Every structure is written in C-alpha cells, then in structure tokens.
Amino acid sequence: MNDFNYYEIKGALTYNINKSISFTGGIGHYETYTAGGEYMKPVVTVETRTWLQVGMEQQLDRINFDHRYRVEQRHLNTGYKNRFRYRLNVVVPINKPTVTKGTIFGYIGDEIFFTDKAPYYERNRFYTGLGYKFSPLLALTSGYMRQFDYKIDTHNYRNFLQIALLFSFNLKEQADHGVPKTTD
C-alpha cells in the first residue's frame, strides 16, 4: 500500500453465443501516477480504453481452458495506441467435479500483449491462485501475478498480490455459469 501508483475503473458487457464462445465490449478509465506517488501528483498517464474481445472455452475432463483474444483502442494523454492481447487461463476445481456453488478452484494462466508499433512485444503476465464460488453469480479469487514490461531501453519485472470479487449478471437465467471470469 505504500507504493500505490495506479487505479482503474471499468465495465464490460458480454454476449454468450453458446456455452463455448462469447463476445465482449468494454470501456475503462485508468490513471497512473509517479512511482511511489500514493495517489499524489504528478499524473503520468491518463487513459480511456475501449476493447472488443472473443472468448473461447474448452473442457477436458475436469480442466477448463479459457482463451481470450482482445483488441484495445487506447486513448492516452500522450496520444492514441492500439494493443492486442491473448490470454490462456486454466481452471481446475479442487473439491467438486465442476466449478459450481461451493467449489474451491485453482487457476494458472499467462497473457501476452502486442502493439502495432515497435517494439511490438509489450508485456507478459503470468498468474496463479485460488478461488471460491459462493453462488452462480459471485466468486472470489486471490493469487500472485508476475508482470514483465518490455521497452527498448529497459526491462521491468513487477510482482503483485491480487484479490478480485467477481459478479456475474445474467439477464436470461439464474443458472450456474461455471468458471468465473474477469475482464481485466
């Protein structure tokens, strides 16, 4: 908490084509302050981001594979940028055969970030952790993320502990939706 320098607020809507394929559109506001700034000025980056993504799921016995392909349109105080992301997330239920109400689950994943300008490779995120599904619409996850940022003149690693409370609002039914997802 003594080295906090970033916050975001975002939202997204997802349309499920079927159990395995979904489309999402989202928008978010992001602010980054000087490292160690603890919400203080100066602001380094202010960004409004929109994105479109396709999600694809595969089930292999108890293991869920979640593929996410995202295209981002980034409107920064320094100009406009595009970014492309691919994420593979693997979820394994621990105390039940599938992820339903009352399930403890483990997850591991990796995400790569590319741009359409040099250097094309921008970032990599590896993460792992545990989660608990309270209900068809509510889950909690907690874990570790290691982020690698690539720049032509420097390479930077950062380690994060994450806690996420995931809400799912299904307008069609209140059935159990399986594996909790985040739109980060």
Describe the structure in your own words:
This protein is an all-beta fold and 184 residues long. The chain has a domain at 50-167. The chain is built from no helices and 9 strands. Strands 1-2-3-4-5-6-7-8-9 form a 9-stranded antiparallel sheet, with no helix packed on it. Strand 1 and strand 2 form a beta hairpin. The radius of gyration is 17 Å and the shape is globular. The mean pLDDT is 87.
Task: Name the descriptors.
mainly beta; single chain; 9-stranded antiparallel beta sheet; 9 strands
How would you summarize this macromolecular structure in one to three sentences?
This protein has 184 residues and is mostly beta strands. The chain has no helices and nine strands.
